[in-house]
Amino acid sequence: MEITVEIAKMNKLIITVAQTGGLHGKDKNPALPEQPKEIAQSAYECYNAGASVCHIHARDRQGHTTGDLEIYKEILSEIRAKSPIITQVGNGIGGVPQPDGSIAAATLDERMELTAIEPKPDMLTINMGTFEFDYIDTFENPMWWNEEFCQRCNERNIAIECECYDISHIYNAMELVKRGVLHTPVHFSLVLGVTGGMPFTPKLLATMVDTIPEGSSWQVITLSKHQLPSTVMAMCQGANIRTGLEDNIYYSRGVLAKSNAQLVERMVKIAREIGREVATVEEAAEMIGVKRD
Amino acid sequence: MDKVIITAAITGSRILRDIAPTIPYTPGEIVDSAVEAWNAGASIVHIHVRDPETGLGKQDLELFRQVVEPLRAKTDLVLSLTTSGIAGRNLPYEHRLVPLELEPELASFDAGSINLGSGVFSNPPDFLDAAAEKMKQKGVKPEIEVFDSGMIVTALSMRDQGKLADPLHFQFVLGTPWGAPATPKSLLHLQEHIPDTATWSVVGIGKGHLPMSMMGLIMGGHIRVGLEDNIYLDRGVKAQTNAQFVERIVKLAQVYGRGVASPRETRAILGLAQEQ
Q: A-chain residues within 8 Å CB-CB of B257?
């Protein structure tokens, strides 16, 4: 898609915070929220700092990644009780510990059940292609499965975000549009730097952006040291950004982030200095097409 | 990643007070503005001088001297003097090269001809040869201004002929009418074509200035800002001083976590002789 460089003409900036993720935990950064009340408190702090979307993964009482709908229910209820932030559940769930001690991807059936979470999340993500996620396990996202997942989201009026880890994934999303299950404008997440997917360089990000159809919105997701350069680059191109301890446990080289909110605050500071206004929850909901009952 | 070098382009030779009421004209005003920019965090100033009466750009050795001498006395700034003179007016070569008599550490070297607004900014091969020769003679490092990719080809060819010496320093000037646009892809494309040993800085003209500054920041390049290139601080808000632009980049660099180079550090990064 064509991009403008005139910051004053850009849309307001939607900041998503990915607080928990489905891989590392408090062992990597003690500030990473795992339990529902912690997640809700952290979401509230991020909302106050300027985040309008909260990307959610669930952990069991021991902090292990889980697809347990009861825990999702608790998380969503706790978040809603504290702030109006837009809730977005990641449909990958994450790496689930197995009885033999290994980590395996959540099953397609478990993941499909996320479309039935109560209370209804505002958004769900779909992952637009199958690849070797971080060489941990094959992250399966077959076309037929994504199609059914989208249909179920549509039945409940849940907004969809398309995570694309490679160029072909963008085309897969457009195929879902063709099949009538994904509505335009499509909201893309360009995820760069996950081993097994597209690495991050400014040039590769620019190439991904070129491939997105006109009229779509996009945000960038990158991991660790790439997060700051990629988000700053995205901000200057009118895109949205994601930050948070799921993607990056550090604030600067060798220094752990103190909280998710600290990472959000830095994004807000940069946005203010370059003159990009930060979207409120209401504005973000309008832009993403989130429909609340 | 090296610390980021901020260059302030104080006045240029084209924008007049009808649209930029505070743009410096006299040597005294240029010096004051450069000192302010230095205090704000700039380590290089890019200098043009003007006829103090009319405000029109002028390649006058005495006027350059009236700027260079006070700046050398008051600051440790790296001085980059223009050899473009008045882009589009194409002054005689000897006028364009006159600031080199003052032996600045850097001087602009516009590595090719290009349309500029309604005129032509003329930099034919014989001028480039004369400029390179004189810069070598005076110990001045060329700041190779690149308005489009052919200018990189030209500079590399001159390097191969021994007329320019590695490590080269490039200044990408993007978003001029009608040069390469000030977009991330345009910058990425140009940057790919310079040698690994080269250093580079970027300036986006007008509305492209902040996005290009940020691309420079994240890509490990350096940044030029100032009233020569852009008179607006925000949409509809004119800048009062050059220092305002510098201050903003310093703040952004701090939040980003990339240090701002002092003039001493700038000399080390650019491989300039340490004698001040």
A: 228, 252-253
Q: pTM for this structure? A: 0.92
Tell me, yes or no, if A228 comes closer than 8 A to chain B by beta carbon: yes
Do the chains contact at B207 and A202, CB–CB below 8 Å? Answer: no
Give the span between the Cα atoms of A217 and A256, in whole angstroms.
31
Measured between beta carbons, the chain A residues lying within 8 angstroms of B182 are 5
Residue-wise pLDDT for A169-215, tens only, equals 999 999 999 999 999 999 999 999 999 999 999 999 999 999 999 99
Residue B201 structure tokens: 């800085």
Tell me if chain B has a CB within 8 Å of the CB of A267: no
A181 touches chain B (CB under 8 A): no
Chain A contact for B207 (CB, 8 A cutoff)? yes
Spans of all domains in chain A: 7-288
Q: How far is CA A281 from CA A118, A221, A287, in A?
A: 21, 20, 10
pLDDT of A74-99, one tens digit each?
A: 999 999 999 999 999 999 999 888 88
Residue A101 CB partners (closer than 8 Å, separation 6+): none
Per-residue confidence (pLDDT) for residue A136, from 0 to 100: 84
CATH T-level fold of A7-288: TIM Barrel (3.20.20)
Tokens of B251: 């703040």
A50: left (phi over 0), alpha (psi -120 to 50) or beta: left
The residues, ordered by sequence, that sit 6+ positions from A115 with a Cβ below 8 Å of its Cβ are A124, A149, A152, A153, A156, A158
A220-241 pLDDT per residue, tens: 999 999 999 999 999 999 999 9
pLDDT digits (tens, 9 = 90+) for B19-40: 999 999 999 999 999 999 999 9
Which of A3, A236, A273 is opposite residue B251, by nearest beta carbon? A273
Contact at CB, B255 and A270, closer than 8 angstroms: yes
Contact B234 A6 (CB under 8 A): no
pLDDT reported for residue B276: 44
Domains of chain B: 6-270 (3.20.20.70)
